[in-house]
């Protein structure tokens, strides 16, 4: 009972063509997903403010700093002060030169520097500074954006 299976040559050629088309289709379908899943953004991030360009590519830490220079020359950290403490400081020694600075590792960006004699002036400066800090944080979190103009 030795049985051999014989196939005509043209039938074998048809099966080989179908197998080649099938394997090609499988390869194409498997490669289609590779290009769309891996995206690498390797661009420099920069902040443009008042004509100065700050490179943010390797910045690890961004922190706000609010200082007040009193008329006698002392510098006071005003970052965590509440309204009553600021009003008391203004009543005691007015005007105060307030500096709002964005620290970026070793770089400093002076966002605002103004002589303040009323709490309302300080409050409007603080509101603008907090808005700028929010914009910087969103900019740094967005991998696609490359430049922020403040």
- Number of helix segments? 3
Helix content: 40-55%
Average residue pLDDT: 85
Q: Helix and strand string, N-terminal first?
A: HEEEEHEEHE
Helix vs. strand class: alpha+beta
- Beginning-to-end CA distance, first to last residue: 89 Å
**Extended strand count:** 7
Shape: rod-shaped
Instruction: Determine Rg (CA atoms, Å).
Output: 33 Å
Q: Strands across the major sheet, in which order?
A: 4-3-5-6
Largest sheet: number of strands, sense, barrel closure: 4 strands, antiparallel
Low-confidence stretches: none
| Proportion of beta-strand residues | 25-35%
Describe, in plain words, how this protein is organized in 3D.
This protein is 41% helix and 27% strand. The longest helix is centred in the first third of the chain and has 29 residues. The radius of gyration is 33 Å and the shape is rod-shaped. The chain has a domain of 104 residues. The mean pLDDT is 85. The chain has 3 helices and 7 strands; from the N terminus they run αββββαββαβ.
Q: What is this structure's SSE topology?
A:
Blueprint: H1 9-37, E1 46-49, E2 52-55, E3 62-69, E4 75-77, H2 83-92, E5 96-104, E6 107-116, H3 119-141, E7 147-149
What are the key terms here?
single chain, alpha+beta, 3-stranded mixed beta sheet, 27% strand, rod-shaped
Short description:
It contains 3 helices and 7 strands, in the order αββββαββαβ. The protein has helices at about 10-35, 85-90, 120-140; strands spanning about 45-50, 50-55, 60-70, 75, 95-105, 105-115, 145-150.
């Amino acid at each position: 009972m030795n049985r051999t299976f014989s196939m005509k040559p043209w039938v074998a050629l048809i099966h080989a063509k179908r197998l080649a088309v099938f394997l090609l289709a499988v390869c194409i379908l498997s490669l289609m997903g590779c290009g769309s899943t891996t995206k690498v953004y390797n661009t420099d991030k920069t902040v443009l403010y008042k004509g100065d360009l700050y490179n943010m590519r390797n910045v690890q830490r961004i922190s706000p700093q609010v200082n007040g220079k009193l008329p006698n020359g002392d510098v006071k950290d005003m970052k965590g002060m509440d309204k009553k403490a600021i009003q008391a400081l203004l009543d005691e020694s007015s005007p105060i030169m307030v500096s709002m600075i964005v620290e970026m590792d070793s770089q400093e960006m002076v966002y605002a520097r103004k002589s303040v004699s009323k709490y309302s002036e300080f409050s409007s400066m603080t509101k603008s500074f907090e808005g700028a800090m929010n914009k910087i944080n969103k900019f740094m979190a967005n991998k696609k954006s490359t430049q922020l103009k403040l």
